[in-house]
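Chain A, query sequence.
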Amino acid sequence: MPEFKLITLDPGHFHAGLIQKEMYAGVSPQVHVYAPLGPDLIEHLGRISRFNARPENPTAWRLEVHTGPDFLERMCRERPGNIVVISGRNRGKIERIRAALDAGLNVLADKPWIIRSADLPKLAEALDLADQRGLVAYDIMTERFEITSILQRELVQDPDVFGERAAGTLQEPGVSMESVHHLYKAVAGVPNLRPAWFFDIAQQGEALSDVGTHLVDLVQWTLFPNQAVDFRREIELTAAARWPTVLSLRQFQQATAEAAFPRLLEPYLKGGNLEYFCNTRVSYAIRGIHARLDVLWNYEAPAGTGDTYFAVFRGTRARVEIRQGKEESYRPELFVVPASRDAKAQVLAAARHRITQLAVRFPGLGVEDRGERLHISIPDGYRVGHEAHFAQVTNQFFGYLRDPKTLPAWEKPDMLAKYLVSTKGVELSQLSSRRA
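Chain A, predicted structure.
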C-alpha cells in the first residue's frame, strides 16, 4: 500500500504541476484534485496529461477531479490523501494551509505563504499547529537545490576562502542580489499562459513578496546555515522602492490569451496600458550584515537570452559570486574574487583545498584561475535546472514525513524572518512611492 497519497488544491500556478513531473517511490499514482471548474484547473490537467504522454520517461498519474464552489470544505471533509499540494493564488493561501492542517493533512505549499505582514501571526499559528499535531508543513524553496547556491554557501562558510562576513553599508552592502524574470516564457517546452489574476498585485503580491522570497531565503540560508534567525531582534529594514513594468493590451493578450483587460485590473490601467508593479528593491540588515535585493520582471527575454541572476557575498578575504548573464550564456556560474592581488595566492590555495573536499560529495568539481577571479567548474550532471528542483524538494519533504524529527528546528523561525522581510519590504516600498 502506498505510503503517501497526494491531494492537489486549486492549482492556479504551474508549480503545482511540476511537483508531478516525475513519479516517486512510495507515492500513490492516484491524485485527487479539488478546485473550481475553470481555466486554472484545465491548464493543470493538460500539464499532467503532457507529462503522462511524453515519449521519454513518461509519468503514470491518475487524477480524480472534484469541482464545485465548496472544493476546500469538501477536501477537508473527504481527505482522500495525507498530503496537500498548494500552489495558486497567494492572497488567502495561509487560510487554506490552516484549513488543511486543521483537517489533519500535511502541507507542501509553494511560496509565498503570505503577502501581507498582517498575516505573520497566522503564519506562526499554522506552523505551531503543525508541530502540535505531528504534521509537516513545508515551504517549497527550490533555489536551495541549485548547485551554484549550494557551493556558494559552502565557500562563504570557509574562513580561509571568504574571511569574515563584511557588514557593508546601505550604499555598499555585504550581500547584493539581483533577479530578473520574464512574464512571457515557456515552461516544460510549452508557452506558459498566466491567468489574468496573476497581474493583480492584491492577489499575487508584488515582486519581493512573491518570487523575492527565494532571495530572502538564500541570504539567511547562506550567511547563517542551520541557525535560527529571530525576526523580532535581528532584522532591520532600511529602504525600499517599487516601479511597474508596463504591458500593452497586445502583450497582455499574448501572456494570458485573454481578449481584454478584465475588470479586476482596472485599478492598474493607465492610458490603455497595464501598470504591473512587479519590481522591488529592498535594503535591510540581518544580524548587522547589510543586504540589498533587486527583484525585477521584464516582459519577454530577447531572442537568445534568458532570466538573469547575480548574487554577491562579500568577505574580508574574497567575494563569492554567482553570475548568470550574457557572459555566462545565461547559465549560473560560480566565482571567487580575491579582495586584493596580494591575497590571491592564499585564496586560490584555500579554494582548491575546499573544492577538493567538496568533490567527495560532488565529483568532478574544479577551480580555474582566470586572473582576477577564480571560476568553480561544475560538471553538467549537477545542472538539473529549475523544474527538476521541485522533485528534489518533494523528496526531501517525504523524508521529513517519514521521520519528522529530521525537520530542522531553525526552519520555523527562518520562515517567519523570511516573510517579515518580503512583506514589510513591499509595504515600505509602497510607503516610499506615496511619499515621492
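The mean pLDDT is 95. The radius of gyration is 22 Å.
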